[in-house]
Amino acid sequence: MKKIQIRFLFTALVFSAMFAACNKDYLDVNKDPNRPTDENITPELLFTQAATAAGFRTIGTVVGGEGAKTDLQFAQNWVGYMGGTGDFAVEQIETTYNIDFAFGDVPWQRDYGVLFDLYLTKTKALANDNKVLAGAAMIISAKMFQELADTYGDIPYSQAFQTETYKRPAYDKAEDIYVSLQASLDSAISYMQETAPASFATVDVVNHGDQDMWIKFANTLKLRMLIRQSEVPGFTPTAEIAKIEANGGVIGAGESISVNPGFNNAQAKQSPFYGNYGFTPTGNKAAGGYAPNNYILSLLLNYNDPRTDRFFTTAGGFFVGSDYGLVTGNPTQSQASYFGPGVARSADQDQWLIPSFEGMFFEAEAIARGWMAGDARAAYEAAVTESFVWLGVEDAANEAALYMTDNEIATWDNAGATVAEQADFIALQKYIALTTIDPREAWADERRLHFLPDGFISNNPGRIGNSLPLRLLYPQSEYTTNNENVSAVGDIDQFTTKIFWQP
């Protein structure tokens, strides 16, 4: 365990330099039209690349060379979805949970880098009276700021990116950020109800100009934040639920939120998940050092889950996984299963931001909690069925029905009578449905509900805890430039310093 004093290295300073231009009026006649400046970088150009980058941030960006992993690989491993094959040395810091202030540096910097571009998009779009584009940027920003707050707790938010006014931005409390994000999403929904310029459908690589889907995306994020706070004593979501229902509800069957600017099977142009966990343009495994974790394989195989071969491939006719954190006994690359065609479909596949079934699981839990009207059982069964459809299971509806009839962990009759029991039951099936797809959501649910069966903890005998870290420590890049503000957060410990919504 490490307790540290932190500082904030303001990411926007780096990016601001990219947009700074020399003001030499006497040379105006010789301006280079090919040189990027703040004047010719339009909000439309910014939005397309920022939305695409947000897709990369959903599953992480590759770091390193041979045997490289994404900067969010820890989440896949921690929650029991993936593990090393033994082809490369076990990552000691990650598998022992002995994380330090450098561990979360890269994801922090990359998330804030994308958020800066989204901030510029919103600012420029509003200056051009393009409220619809500004709203789209605000919605994606809300998703990413929530994920940052869920990972690190208090973070720079209200003063972020305003470098001329705030050279050393303050850290906002995570609970205040949640309140502000709800208000920001309300504004974004209002903007989305305006008439969009003709250019919006062209630059919208997420919902292709469908403003109703953007509103559902915003509502789904609003509900995700409410669900996250379900264990906070005295929490009352009534007012926010009313807004969600009044504005069209959350995403449903066939309504995944994804991004695709034109991914293809060329170097650096593949869809993010496929590029990280599928195959390179030359046909080699992109993540040969990783395999399915035996923890998730046991949950799938013990209950004859028809989705197993959509999540993972077989090796020699069998599903072969790895024990996370264990060196001895892990299969080599050629002996391990790999990532299957339900998640690693093709180089040009859409990159999900929130898959349809995830939003449906949020709704099922909200109904079970009495927050929304409806039949919790029907909503739950629809979410499970949509997972089968989304993954491409043959005869999906019938297979899902059989799965929910034959298995004790899936049939609603075993969901229990209390809200807590039903929430845990739904969360477990959401966890299985999200296998390799959204590990940060699974990590958040485990921290919120502690619902997972035993067995997902690292096998590394040197681990310093018997439970998952509750958060990441502030990154190393936060040490020197904003010490006064960040020190006000107080000492941070990965096992004891909770995010505000954790029980």
Automatic annotation (TrEMBL):
Span of the signal peptide: 1-20
UniProt xrefs under Pfam families: SusD-like_2
Coiled coil: none
Keywords, in A-Z order: Lipoprotein, Signal
UniProt name for this protein: SusD/RagB family nutrient-binding outer membrane lipoprotein
Organism: Panacibacter microcysteis
